[in-house]
Design a protein that fits this description.
44% helix, globular, 355 residues, mainly alpha, two-stranded antiparallel sheet, 13 helices
């Protein structure tokens, strides 16, 4: 529980700083400008190879569930940008700089440089600590991570200058969701058509425009995308009884660890993006019974509880139309209070047992 309290506190601190600097609002505004000036897609189409590889190998999605960096977020943002700009089957070519108004770094929300010893955010007194410079560093780091997935699995390729080998980040190439491929010619990204028979899933554009891509952590995004894939593959089952993953399928087919999956489902439920399957319509009000439904006993005792059937989940999209920053901050604040109260009660119980 202590680790969960610390993680919740850190997350609230980061959200608070981004709210103070209007980082998410600014990034969402830049993305909306791209959307408005482009094709205005209602949904972004993802190839299933990002989530589940047909050859049984570990999918790129789970390779990007990392404690640090924005690699998964940046790749999804790049797909959003491409589909705002390009037609179906049109190949990707970078048409955007790394810095400046409307640049790649403009699409990213971060909290800034934090000094853990003092417990404060460091002022922008040095060049490398300014918001734009920090965002550019994050983008470059994300491209490094996407490229280092392997020669065949890389989701981005960054060329080098002939003289000295300097990495030309501003000339990076985006690869398809399955990676660069094993041929000499890289499998450069093209916009897919939205058909399940073509192994694709769709994500509402408001996931990007309302800040959700900025505030959800990588394990939550991975869990959410996996459940979206299941819900779109088995639409009738999803609407009637919900979808689920047994442990073996979760691990072997999707490469998701149990703790990341369960934590992701729990948080997504709290944010109103998931619910336990029930008979009411999928477009029912997602605001009812969210925070009040948090069960700390259930949350922290799962490892001790024998379960023969996994939870059945339904993905609900209504909450994507709302401000992600406000919803996540409210939910995490309540969760932090409950965690603090549970810790206090546990400490009082230990104290009384020793007296």
């Amino acid at each position: 529980m202590a680790d969960t309290r610390d993680a919740t506190s850190r997350r609230l601190r980061r959200l608070g700083e981004m709210q103070k600097t209007e980082a998410v609002e600014g990034a969402s505004r830049a993305l909306r400008d791209v959307w408005e000036a482009g094709r205005k897609p209602a949904e972004i189409v993802l190839r299933l190879e990002l989530i589940q590889r047909p050859d049984g190998e570990r999918a790129p999605l789970t390779r990007l569930v990392l404690p640090r960096g924005i690699a998964l977020r940046f790749y999804l943002l790049a797909l959003f940008e491409a589909q705002c700009r390009l037609d179906v089957n049109e190949p990707w070519a970078n048409a955007r700089p790394l810095t400046g108004v409307g640049s790649w770094s403009d699409f990213v929300a971060i909290d800034g440089a934090y000094h853990s010893a003092s417990g404060t955010y460091m002022p922008d007194t040095k060049q490398e600590r300014t918001g734009p410079d920090l965002r550019v560093r994050q983008v470059k780091s994300a491209l490094d991570t996407l490229e280092k997935l392997g020669l065949e699995r890389a989701l981005a390729v960054v060329p080098r200058a002939r003289n000295g080998g300097r990495r030309l980040y501003e000339q990076f190439s985006l690869m398809k969701e399955g990676g660069r491929g094993g041929h000499q010619t890289p499998d450069t990204y093209t916009v897919p058509a939205p058909h399940w028979s073509a192994r694709t899933i769709t994500v509402p554009s408001n996931f990007f425009l309302m800040g959700w891509v900025q505030v959800l952590n990588p394990s939550e995004i991975a869990t959410w995308l996996t459940l979206r894939a299941l819900s779109q593959w088995a639409r009738e089952q999803h609407a009637e009884t919900g979808v689920y993953l047994y442990g073996k399928a979760r691990k072997e087919d999707f490469g998701l660890r149990r703790d990341a999956w369960e934590d992701g489902c729990n948080m997504l439920r709290g944010f109103g993006l998931l619910r336990h399957a029930r008979a009411s319509a999928l477009d029912a009000d997602p605001k009812k019974g969210l925070s009040a439904s948090i069960d700390l006993v259930d949350y922290f005792a799962r490892e001790m509880r024998e379960r023969y059937e996994p939870y059945r989940w339904q993905v609900i999209d209504q909450r994507l139309n709302e401000d992600a920053m406000k919803i996540c901050t409210k939910e995490l604040t309540l969760r932090k209070k409950q965690l603090d109260l549970a810790a206090k009660q546990r400490a009082q119980g230990k104290k009384s047992s020793t007296t």
